């Protein structure tokens, strides 16, 4: 017992269930009436209802993806598409309903806000229940609210950009999100404004058979600068839940956007997400993406470099344990000259888990002077675990510099012996090696998030010995 990490006692921080008590809970299943009911409940304008119905029609017609992970077990008629936990979004933490407040207290959301965040949003089931932004940022014109509120208060911005980066026709799951979306974050940073501290959102699924479909839209105007961090958890149920989000980012001339995800969904959640950014002239977009939990994750953050000298960096890490499949990767589309990108992907598989890297680097004709590098490293913890890599390079211009490196390895026995000779248990030594392997991800996180990520890895490593 002396060698057992005390951190595994903290797993209850994520795996707990609240009694179900909602203002409104839809019937199971998806139909045109479900979509209309969601829009009516939200008192949306006619243009948003038409957008939803257009998406629903496409979802019904489009077949399920035949590649990636196994989606055969998803029953779209056995899912609740809309649960409203409260009637309004609060700006004061003490005004949030006690049951929901206790949930986020246990997850540490208010503490995080007090310590180092510029703004916080908390989503419980289908709706954002709490939102706060520092006053000096509001005074500069920064908008940070839930997307439902943005539709009401900032319709001109939402209507201009919503669904332009990822239209409903993009893929079947994007169409599903577009039909039944609820919650998510809306951020607008005016020209020249730098948001010094991160903005954060936290997404929590509590109910069984729940679908969560948040929609996030971030617009960084010319030479603006913003960081956004999101976390995701759910308790374990015997029946599957579905998380299908859409994230759209517009980085205008000279803007900088960093989007960080630390995802620890439970082992019964299908995590099927579409994330895409447009980077204009001299803009920079970073996706920092960690996937530790879920039954199946299919997520490939992408950046379209549409302006000269635009830059993209994608750091993706994945950890697959027993009965889990992390199908993750990245896409960068170079459409303008002198653009550059870097993709770093790290994965760890144990107890028969499967990790997949699926990536694309595309260089369009005329996009001269492109530089792109891809590095994929996989670590296998045992003989039952697997990893696969599908890197695609589509280069239509001779004047381009493209590199790709990939490695697959096992735990180095010499490293393990050295650490254990210094007094660490085998589990502690394994955890240290794995967290070191993930260092390209943790070094770009704020300190407290890096600590949290290392805790998650250490908890996952419990029981890995033997």
Strand content: 35-45%
The N- to C-terminal Cα distance equals: 17 Å
> How does the helix and strand content classify structurally?
alpha/beta
Total helices: the number is 12
Shape: globular
The overall pLDDT average reads 81
Give the tally of β-strands.
24
Name the poorly predicted regions: 1-20, 125-131, 234-238
Taking the sheet with the most strands, its summary is: 12 strands, mixed
Helical content stands at: 10-25%
The figure for the number of domains is: 2
Radius of gyration: 22 Å
Describe this protein's structure.
- By secondary structure, the protein is of the alpha/beta class.
- The protein has 2 domains: 17-414, no CATH class; 415-466, no CATH class.
- The protein is 24% helix and 36% strand.
- It has 12 helices and 24 strands.
- It has helices at 32-41, 46-61, 98-107, 109-116, 135-139, 147-153, 155-161, 172-180, 413-421, 426-437, 439-442, 447-461; strands at residues 24-25, 83-84, 119-124, 127-133, 143-146, 185-189, 199-204, 211-212, 215-220, 225-233, 241-243, 246-251, 256-264, 269-279, 284-291, 296-299, 302-305, 311-320, 325-334, 340-349, 354-363, 370-380, 386-395, 400-410.
- The strands form 3 sheets. Strands 5, 6, 8, 9, 11, 12, 14, 16, 17, 19, 21 and 23 form a 12-stranded mixed β-sheet that branches. Strands 4-3-7-10-13-15-18-20-22-24 form a 10-stranded mixed β-sheet.
- β3 and β4 form a beta hairpin.
